[in-house]
Amino acid sequence: MTKLAVFQSEWAPKIEQQLTQDLGEASSDSAFSDMMAYAVLNGGKRLRPMLTLAVVTSFGQKITPSILKVATAVEWVHAYSLVHDDLPAMDNDLLRRGKPSVHALYGEAEAILVGDALLTGAFHVVSSANSCSIKNDRISAEELLLLTQMLSVQAGGSGMVVGQVKDMQNHSQKLKIDAEWLLNDVYTPKTAALLGFSATAGSRLAHLDSEHDISDDEIMRGRLATHLALLTFGIDFGIAFQIQDDLDDFNQDDIENITSLPHLIGIQAARAKRDEYLTNARKILTDLAAHNLNFDRTLLDDFLNLIGDEI
Amino acid sequence: MTKLAVFQSEWAPKIEQQLTQDLGEASSDSAFSDMMAYAVLNGGKRLRPMLTLAVVTSFGQKITPSILKVATAVEWVHAYSLVHDDLPAMDNDLLRRGKPSVHALYGEAEAILVGDALLTGAFHVVSSANSCSIKNDRISAEELLLLTQMLSVQAGGSGMVVGQVKDMQNHSQKLKIDAEWLLNDVYTPKTAALLGFSATAGSRLAHLDSEHDISDDEIMRGRLATHLALLTFGIDFGIAFQIQDDLDDFNQDDIENITSLPHLIGIQAARAKRDEYLTNARKILTDLAAHNLNFDRTLLDDFLNLIGDEI
User: Fold this and answer.
1) Which of A61, A300, B61, B87 is most deeply buried (CB count within 10 A of its CB)?
2) Are strands A99-100 and B95-96 parallel, antiparallel or unpaired?
3) Among candidates A90, A146, A166 on the partner chain, residue whose Cβ is nearest the Cβ of B112
């Protein structure tokens, strides 16, 4: 059993509990709350909050209740994006994880609104994270505000949403595309931006010791370099993850309609590209270990090992 | 010319400028930025940010650059809600203010994504409001975090979104509804919640003098009572505004499909109901003037006077 598998068996139920609790208060209308919960509590792997918590742990820091709550916000964003992606005007998917998608079950208008409420709710989760704090577990308002800002960037018009815009163009307009465009303009914002947020949020949450009071410029620069390294780690991991997803789906794709990296450059070259991003991500962990005495890379190596041909 | 008309002629261009500037940075993709800007820069009255700024001014406080920026966030939320409401699965409107709606012009998928990006962007506007601060104009992180939280509540699954859910049910399911349900379950969340946010945000922004450091319980209770009074004022104004909108639209409605308050209880009774909310709102201003030496009610009275039979 990998260290990550042990970690997941401990934290997956706690993430699920946090999501369930917050979703129970997500709407004043219980029928609508149920729709929102259906969209989120669907057996997802919780990769994004898990990555945040793994980064916190990698730096030897404790996962407090308010850190757990912040970590789950990105899952609301991920869930809303799936609900909207499944809509008839987008990918028109009737199934999600073998069950009816939200619009298939509840109707199209309801699915649009469920997505809207989940996205709005994500920002409530971050901004109210201290509501479940205990003792000295409060996260500073400065930090939560910065995390709010980062989430809005990685999820919005320069992040996840624009990745979906490009992906739709890719599907519908039969653009003449190349691999570089697909990696930089689709995969990076659509899939990797949120994972980048998850990782760098973990780095920030692992360094809550009055960061805003640090007067030593050198320490401060080191901190920022660490946060940036984790952002890049999350993005590299995210792109490799997306390429793997494409490789897994390759045989099911309708070649007429979908242009993914393996379709563009072939399976072997796509695998090589994926391994390039994994190598970059591993290099980041090596650098982090060299500069941070408290950093244990095992969990994050296990994340990278989730991706590959043998799985 | 009313005091509000003078105020609007000064601040409408500044609101427009702030929106234009932030929308210019709303996406890394310029074509998508343009779609987002099209959805917002459409000649709207900017009632919601104007209300926030009017409240700040009513308390004798200066409107600083960062206060202006915070005030405009709600307009992003309002604009996204119109884009999504116009979608084929919702109200299926091809026109908005006499021009093609976003989905009519750019396509349905794009309209969903424009709305998503505007909603996400609203939280970026609030959380980055200090980016345009000058000198001592910074708003505390505590305050901005609280405003983020309030916006997510009034816009989300217990606010605006659930109002739209109920309104869709009202349209499609031909429920047996009564006036109380319509006022409380549709008008209040769908229209009044955001206006409630605008007004109470103005109250908070008018009292930025280290509120979080106030140790005097009595002053603190007075502050909270003031913020709550403005929330109620905004909600009363919003409901009256929605009833007026229904009265104005009464003759254009297809009685088969739409059930609005005048359809339910008749024009005279709807006018009486509207005036009830206006009277309540005026009472709040009377109370505020009695308890706050610096409070000048003229601008907010002008807001209430926008609504009525003579206009």
Assistant:
1) A300
2) unpaired
3) A90
- For residue A311, being part of any structural domain is answered with no
* Among B residues 158-177, those touching chain A with beta carbons less than 8 Å apart: 158, 161-162, 164-166, 168, 172
Q: CA nearest B34 in A: which residue?
A: A157
- Could you report the per-residue pLDDT of B227-281, keeping only the tens digit for each? 999 999 999 999 999 999 999 988 776 554 567 899 899 999 999 999 999 999 9
Classify residue B310: in a domain, yes or no.
Answer: no
A2 touches B at CB < 8 Å: no
Give the whole-angstrom CA distance, residue A71 versus residue B70: 26
The residue-averaged pLDDT of B298-303 equals 98
Q: Considering only CB atoms, which chain B residues are within 8 Å of A113? A: 84, 161, 164-165, 168
Inspect the interface and report whether the beta carbons of A149 and B140 lie closer than 8 Å.
no
CA distance B70 to A95: 40
Structure-block tokens of residue A7: 């970690």
Does some domain include residue A310? Answer: no
Q: How far apart are CA A260 and CA B35, in angstroms?
A: 26
Whether the pLDDT of residue B133 is over 90: the answer is no
Which residues on chain B are in Cβ contact (under 8 Å) with A27? 156-158, 161-162
Q: Which domain holds residue A226?
A: 3-305
Chain B residues near residue A80 by CB distance under 8 angstroms = 116
Do residues B69 and B52 touch, judged by C-beta distance below 8 A? Answer: no
In a mutational test of the B interface, the residue from A82, A124, A130, A131 whose CB has the highest number of chain B CBs within 10 Å is A124
Partner residues linked to B100 by β-bridges: B95
Q: Predicted confidence band at B117 (pLDDT cuts at 50, 70, 90)?
A: very high
Inter-chain CB proximity A33 and B144 less than 8 Å: no
**Best CA proximity match to A21, nearest among A125, A115, A99, A161:** A125
- Distance of residue A279 Cα from the nearest chain B Cα, in angstroms: 27
* B250 CA: distance to closest CA in chain A (Å): 25
Q: Give the residue, B271 or B310, on which the prediction is more confident.
A: B271
Number of domains composing chain A = 1
Give Cα separations from A133 to A23, A48, A180 (angstroms): 18, 21, 44
Cβ neighbours of A189 in B, within 8 Å: 28
* DSSP letter assigned to residue A140: P
pLDDT at B311: 45
Distance (Å, rounded) from C-alpha A304 to C-alpha B310? 68
| Residue written as token pair 């914002």 | A189
ipTM of model: 0.95
| Whole-number Å distance between alpha carbons of B35 and B106 | 8
pLDDT at A311 over 50: no
Count of helices and strands (H, E) across chain B: 14, 2
Q: B29: buried, middle or exposed (CB in 10 Å: 19+, 13-18, 0-12)?
A: buried
Whichever domain contains A92, its CATH number is 1.10.600.10
Asked if B123 and A154 count as a contact pair (C-beta separation under 8 A), the reply is: no
Tokens 């919780």 — which residue? A46
